[in-house]
Design goal:
heterodimer; A: Cyclophilin; 14% helix; B: alpha+beta; Cyclophilin
């Protein structure tokens, strides 16, 4: 079974859980920008949550299939059609040989995931198939998919028609709220600067990518903040560089940083970063570390229970 | 000798802890940080997922889901924090002893096994086609290109850590005469392998990325080799020496060939200049 890329879209890449454990070599985890949406699609098909899938960003692709298999599209909502007929997110789609899946206009969110009931026949690099766009390796030829690319799939299956229960269907239409725990250097920011940061004072810049999500707004004053000791930079860390415009470190972010850290997006909300759109205003809400862990624990339990509800 | 033994444990987000040291960055602190990283690894804490050394900090990443959970929070976290603090105190005390013994030239038999450090020679072509900013460096330092090359290839730079992008080496030991400010406006694309100077640091860009350093040469070697084992050419505490090569040698060098490595013990390692 082969999957042909007819139109590539803006940045369509092969992704999975990435390569954790390599920060000490300067290699960020990479992998799916929204690991929750990826997991939901995979669980719909009976795959492990981080089974390699196709990540679609902002402008979607057109893909042709040579044989039968089941797939599911989760995450961002596009006008999705199969052979010109409208199909839905969050349910198993049955593909036959010759079918074409087309991503039309983006309605909400930023990244969709095509989970596949089959295995892409590609070599793993450092234990993962994921495309690391910044470092230029993994996936297919270390880059985003292009028109004319073909991916061979082995062990293709047809799965039963299943739909995600309503509580698992993610809605990205509202104004995004990210929960954060305060950064070590938050204390150095004036109360006015903090209020601006926490009250929707920043919007997402179109300059954002898999390395970092750039925010734009009235610059936060950083002149009087003492020089920081460089340390590991994990996804979700919000640094404020000298221009006063915060940057949220993302899945392919640099691994060491030394700018003042105003806050850190909690682990449980990192998946939400993958669905942020340029121009959106961002709200932040502080929680303490125990609360952050409890939220993560609860979300993880929900995901563990999903297979029993399908 | 590492006299300053204070440190602080602080959260770096909800899934990492920074162990931040008060001692000045340098070879001895880096040795202590790597020893601590190895000691934590040897403990095999189930929740610990990554250990990331930096100049004055070791970051311990953990998976909050691997910590037992009660209604009020992760009960295991204070335990992990106190174990890390105890280990840190122990390693700092040990490093102090080891340094004392080394100064007395005593043999030690009860020390943890140390990572075998190597001197890695990295070929660099300083020819002007690869060195767009060498003139800037000449006018800033008052040195000739030949003097810059001589001073850049002389030291055995200490690898403090890897980071930023895959395979980037944070090196210590740049000749003070070669310090030069970064560009006011960073270049949009620096070629992979470019060797540059930024402030008091020197290093190699492993990937084609934007960058603000003054570029004085280029290595034909790939610093990140995702399909080789190991995928990186150097570890923290290794030494790097740049060796000047001709443009012909540059084109003839296989990017994925093993850098010429020589056990450091065959050499008298000089002190890192600061």
């Amino acid at each position: 079974m082969t999957l042909h890329i007819i139109k590539p879209g803006l940045q369509t890449t092969i992704q999975d859980g990435g390569r954790p454990g390599n920060l000490r070599w300067g290699l960020s985890r990479g992998g799916a920008a929204d690991t929750l949406a990826m997991a939901l699609g995979n669980l719909l098909l009976g795959n492990p949550p981080a089974h390699p899938c196709i990540e679609v960003a902002l402008t979607g692709p057109e893909i042709a299939f040579t044989e039968s298999l089941s797939l599911a599209v989760t995450g961002a909502h596009f006008d999705l059609t199969l052979n010109g007929k409208s199909v839905a997110n969050d349910e198993v789609l049955q593909i036959r040989g010759g079918d074409q899946l087309h991503f039309g206009a983006l309605r909400s969110g930023a990244r969709a995931y095509i989970a596949l009931a089959g295995k892409m026949a590609l070599p793993a690099s450092l234990g993962s198939l994921s495309t690391h766009v910044v470092a230029g390796f993994g996936g297919l030829h270390g880059r985003a998919l292009q028109a004319g690319d073909s991916i061979h799939l082995d062990h293709c299956r047809l799965e039963a028609n299943r739909t995600l229960p309503s509580q698992y269907r993610l809605d990205y239409r509202g104004r995004p709220l990210l929960r954060v725990i305060p950064g070590l250097e938050e204390q150095y920011f004036s109360s006015g600067a903090r209020a601006q940061f926490y009250r929707g004072g920043f919007t997402i810049s179109p300059q954002s990518n898999r390395m970092g999500i750039r925010l734009v707004g009235e610059p936060l004053p950083v002149e009087n903040i003492p020089q920081q000791i460089s340390s590991a930079l994990c996804p979700g860390t919000i640094q404020v560089p000298p221009n006063g415009q915060p940057v949220i470190s993302f899945v392919e972010g640099q691994t060491i940083g030394g700018y003042p850290r105003i806050a850190h997006v909690i682990s449980a909300d990192l998946h939400r970063l993958g669905q942020l759109n340029a121009g959106a205003r961002l709200d932040f809400e502080t929680v303490d570390r125990d609360t952050a862990h409890r939220i993560l624990h609860d979300k993880s339990l929900l995901l563990e229970r999903l297979p029993h509800k399908l | 000798m590492l006299r300053e033994r204070r440190f602080e444990l602080s959260p770096n987000g909800d899934a990492a802890l920074d162990i931040r040291f008060s001692a000045a960055p340098g070879e001895q602190l880096s040795e202590a940080i790597i020893a601590l990283s190895e000691a934590i690894e040897a403990e095999s804490f189930p929740a610990v997922t990554e250990l990331v050394p930096a100049y004055q900090c070791l970051t311990v990443c953990f998976d909050p889901l691997q910590l037992s959970h009660s209604g009020s929070g992760s009960a295991d976290l204070p335990k992990l924090e106190s174990s890390l603090a105890t280990l840190t105190q122990k390693i700092l005390a040990q490093t102090l002893r080891t340094n004392k013994k080394n100064t007395d030239e005593e043999n030690t038999d009860n020390e943890p096994p140390e990572y075998k450090r190597t001197l890695i020679r990295i070929p660099v072509c300083y020819d002007e086609q690869f060195a767009p900013d060498i003139q800037t460096l000449c006018s800033h330092t008052g040195l000739t290109a030949a003097e810059i090359i001589a001073r850049h290839t002389a030291p055995r730079y200490l690898v403090h850590m890897l980071g930023f992008t895959p395979g980037f080496l944070y090196l210590g030991g740049l000749d003070e005469q070669l310090h030069c400010p970064r560009k006011a406006r960073p270049e949009l694309k620096i070629a992979a392998g470019s060797v540059g100077i930024g402030g008091g640091q020197t290093g190699i860009y492993p990937q084609a990325t934007p960058g603000g350093w003054q570029i004085i040469g280029r290595t034909p070697l790939a610093l990140f080799r995702p399909d080789q084992d190991p995928p990186f050419i150097a570890h923290p505490l290794d030494r790097i020496q740049f060796v000047a090569i001709s443009p012909e040698q540059f084109t003839q060098t296989d990017p994925f060939s093993a850098p010429d490595t020589i056990p450091l013990t065959e050499f008298a390692a000089p002190e890192v200049r600061r």
